[in-house]
Specification:
Chain lengths: 161, 426
């Protein structure tokens, strides 16, 4: 019998399909770590989000703790200090981020005040707080993170030599 | 019958496989002990003024490294051709109280709250540096330290290397090994590694020994990542780690502690023996004999089911091959991968299910209104009634919601179960 994982009903939309026109632009106009975190219309991976908060995927991909090359790129949840882990997508400086981007939907914090709780949900909470602070409208997110069975390039395996 | 002859050598492949299966059981048996003690810590956070490091984070780091050691042993089992080993097996899952497998003298293994006694007399004894070998007994002869045991395996790998099909390991079997999905903020930088030849096999065994009990003459500090060297402590500042034995020794001495301070001198207000900071969890919880409210027993049984799902998911990972992809030839952002979903799910179930359920247990008195003894996770075998453990977890959680509302909600255990991979038991 197949062991194919069931997908969550909480994520009605998947990250962009490979051959669609929704692939990231060569140079992202904004850096964010998952779906539903774009701060303005058209600044998401596809460039087609109708408004803030409705983007379908991350615009930055990196594999681990401290690898984000700019502020706000930390995914959080797998490693990092208590403080770092509380701020997914909201680090103040490059290399201060904690963990891979994009955020997968089952990822939870391994430490800090939200240990055991959803990373994406906290990233979205922080995003929404920024939007309220800026006085901007935003729309519903298309999901709560990338499905766990969607493997990004940085985790591809090659034959051992 | 006991003989006092020379130390046993591993002479054939089956003997090596038997030793590796025993090693996997030994590594697995340490994880619940360390987690149980860690869960018993009440406090969160750590004062910036406190001397030393957080005992809680140190303990978590050690537990994760034991999981690393388990993965290295199992990767080697795969590499030498054994794909039959399963963790979700009543004969493999350790029971508590028990004794450390095949160790002489006998070392009691007990689930107990964190205390100086537990650290000194159990944890430090588990990671005790090597002593001279002595008696021999049984099919797998006993050992006196894990270092001695793994040294025997190292010699076995070397002596049998010409009979091990390393080419098959490099061509096919590596795909079944555990390689990705490992993070440890509180430990060394060593990671699960693919084992495809004698050199990688020996290196894996050295990581296990040195991270645990330390290297000979290491003076408490080891290179990070692990390499065998005479340069102790390593001169490359910032590239060192302490062995588990040293870390536990620091906790027992109070150097690494709870993190609540008296003032800004760094003196810690509480030790790990103070009731203010440690939950009064019972010793060696056993679902068959524990005297507790029925709802508490049900929660303990749920924790057993979650623990066994973790082990079954690991088994699913080890029987599902990784795929080979070349990013340069792939224009997709992502590739669909069941194996990848299992790996993500494995991390998520430990952090998002096992932890919150255990954390709820240690805060819960065995009998309502009696605050002297709290519950704890028994880490016992749970027999799933069907081949669909995820569905059973969901049903168990649903039944517990009227008594434990914290399991539900928008960001609780119930949601996390819905995101688990729907593995099938063999």
């Amino acid at each position: 019998m197949s062991e194919r994982p069931a997908h969550s009903a909480r994520s009605p939309k998947r990250c962009p399909d490979p051959d669609s026109s929704l692939l990231p632009r060569e140079v992202a106009r904004e850096l964010h770590v998952c779906m539903g975190l774009n701060s303005c219309a058209g600044l998401d991976a596809s460039g087609q989000a109708p408004m803030a908060g409705m983007g379908t995927c991350a615009t930055v991909f990196h594999v681990c703790h401290g690898e984000g090359a700019c502020r706000g790129q930390g995914g959080c949840g797998y490693a990092g200090t208590d403080y770092e882990q509380f701020h997914p997508g909201e680090q103040d400086c490059r290399y201060n981020g904690s963990c891979a981007s994009p955020i997968n939907e089952s990822r939870v914090f391994s430490a800090g005040p939200l240990k055991g709780k959803s990373v994406w949900k906290q990233a979205r909470r922080l995003f929404e707080a920024r939007m309220y602070a800026a006085g901007k409208a935003f729309g519903p997110a298309p999901g709560e993170g990338v499905e766990d069975d969607r493997m990004p390039h940085y985790d591809y395996m090659s034959q051992p030599q | 019958m006991t003989t006092k002859e020379s130390v046993q050598e591993i002479t054939d492949l089956q003997d090596l496989i038997d030793h590796l299966k025993a090693a996997a059981q030994v590594e697995l048996s340490t994880v619940p002990l360390y987690l149980y003690a860690t869960y018993s810590i009440k406090t969160r956070g750590y004062s910036q003024w406190a001397a030393g490091a957080s005992a809680q984070r140190t303990m978590i780091g050690v537990a994760i490294e034991e999981m690393l050691h388990l993965s290295l042993v199992r990767n080697l089992l795969i590499a030498v051709g054994d794909t039959s080993f399963r963790l979700y097996d009543p004969k493999v899952i350790p029971t508590y109280p028990g004794v450390m497998l095949k160790r002489e003298p006998k070392l009691p293994m007990r689930l107990r709250k964190l205390s100086t006694d537990q650290v000194r007399n159990t944890f430090m004894q588990i990671e005790l540096p090597a002593t001279p070998p002595g008696a021999a007994l049984g099919e797998i002869e006993p050992y006196h330290s894990l270092g001695e045991f793994y040294a025997r395996i190292e010699r076995g790998i070397h002596n049998l290397s010409s009979t091990i099909d390393w080419a098959k390991a490099k061509k096919d079997l590596w795909k079944f090994q555990y390689h990705r999905a490992y993070w440890n903020q509180n430990g060394g930088s060593d990671q699960p590694r693919l084992i495809v030849d004698e050199a990688s096999a020996i290196q894996a065994m050295q990581i296990i020994v040195d991270q645990g009990e330390g290297a000979p003459e290491d003076k408490g500090l080891l290179p990070d990542p692990i390499v065998r060297t005479d340069d102790h402590p390593p001169q490359d500042i910032g590239k060192w780690q302490a062995s588990h034995y040293t870390k536990f020794s620091d906790i027992a001495k109070g150097l690494d502690g709870i993190g609540v301070v008296c003032d800004d001198t760094g003196k810690q207000k509480y030790t790990i023996d103070d009731a203010e900071v440690i939950w009064p969890v019972l010793d060696d919880p056993d679902l068959k004999t524990v005297k507790a409210d029925q709802t508490v027993k049900d929660l303990m049984e749920f924790s057993n089911a979650v623990y066994c799902y973790v082990l079954a998911l690991l088994d699913a990972i080890y029987r599902t091959p990784m795929q080979v992809h070349d990013p340069a030839q792939d224009k997709d952002l992502f590739t669909q991968s069941d194996r990848y979903a299992y790996e993500r799910g494995f991390i998520a179930v430990m952090q998002g299910l096992l932890y919150p359920v255990c954390e709820l247990l240690v805060r819960t008195p065995l009998v309502k209104g009696q605050l002297s003894v709290n519950a704890g996770p028994p880490f016992q075998y749970y027999a799933f009634k069907t081949k669909q453990p995820k569905a059973e977890l969901a049903a168990l959680c649903e039944e517990l919601l009227p008594s434990y509302a914290a399991l539900g909600g928008d960001d609780g255990v119930q949601r996390q179960i819905s995101l688990l991979p729907d593995i099938q038991l063999p």
